């Protein structure tokens, strides 16, 4: 069997630390959090104290300054136990990364130490009722304060609009918010802001009831004449879409890591169950159909893991491109959903019971073909690269 080679001894030592934290602080309470639809802020503080948040943030901003694999270990250990509630990935892998990449020195020093400690929870405010994968179509508007003097580049912005499906939406203290500052400029009219959610005019909608990932709070967010200072802009005005595009490969890689991990775990659960469960005077695992189904899933899960680990290496070397990230995300997410369905089938009626992890994994799985860009968008990215410069000539001929 192919062994993973990307982790060093220090990563495996860290994995043991993370695993102990997850088993002690998360596993015993996760079912309760699923019923409540949210994890407590206390967990974030404990995770911060244990060093589980924002491992790659430099020491000068309160972090540990470690490599990306330390974050990967945290994510994998959460997903291995089906802990879909703690929204650490959004906080660590995306919000902190946006601030590190595009934030001013003042923004970094204000927010990053709090995020590392779990005192400030981060979220991304991008998806809207009318703009999911098509991020340049956002309608949330940010305009200069009409009462400000003309040409005053330090004037506040006034933001109005709505976001939906926002992970960590009920808990977030800081929000990377995508807005339109120029509605006529298309992608070049998108601007990001780093919003303190204590700002008047920011309002949280209800905690949305979802098919899966029930312990992770997911919300509508509303902005009504919310005044933010010009200093809250994240990056340059009109550059928000470009900034978001630079982070999509990282987001899709994270989704691939999740799917590769959960796929492996579901197969392990099913092998263990079918080796014990008996029917017709033999175990379910004795049936050739069971063996063939699991062998097929196992072989493809190994292929998915090898490619995903290679993408991690490329990302850490600064060489992961959008096409490779799209392929990793597409293949692993589709395999994730297929594995959830086929493994649940082998559990029979018990697989449909919420008390069984495979049932919860099945419900949690469906989002992976949507989050981070739908599989249809991934196919578009891949095929566009394949046919680059060819389709136009075909049409002309």
UniProtKB/TrEMBL annotation:
Q: Domain Acyl-CoA dehydrogenase/oxidase N-terminal, which positions?
A: 9-119
Q: Which UniProt keywords apply?
A: FAD, Flavoprotein, Oxidoreductase
- Residue ranges of every copy of the Acyl-CoA dehydrogenase/oxidase C-terminal domain listed in the record: 238-386
**Does the keyword Thylakoid feature in the UniProt annotation?**
no
> Acyl-CoA oxidase/dehydrogenase middle domain spans which residues?
124-226
A Gene Ontology molecular function term for this protein is: flavin adenine dinucleotide binding
Gene3D superfamilies with a match to the protein in the record: Acyl-CoA dehydrogenase/oxidase, N-terminal domain, Butyryl-CoA Dehydrogenase, subunit A, domain 2, Butyryl-CoA Dehydrogenase, subunit A, domain 3
Name any cofactors this protein relies on: FAD
To which protein family does this belong? Belongs to the acyl-CoA dehydrogenase family.
Q: What is this protein called?
A: Acyl-CoA dehydrogenase
Q: Which organism is it from?
A: Sphingomonas koreensis
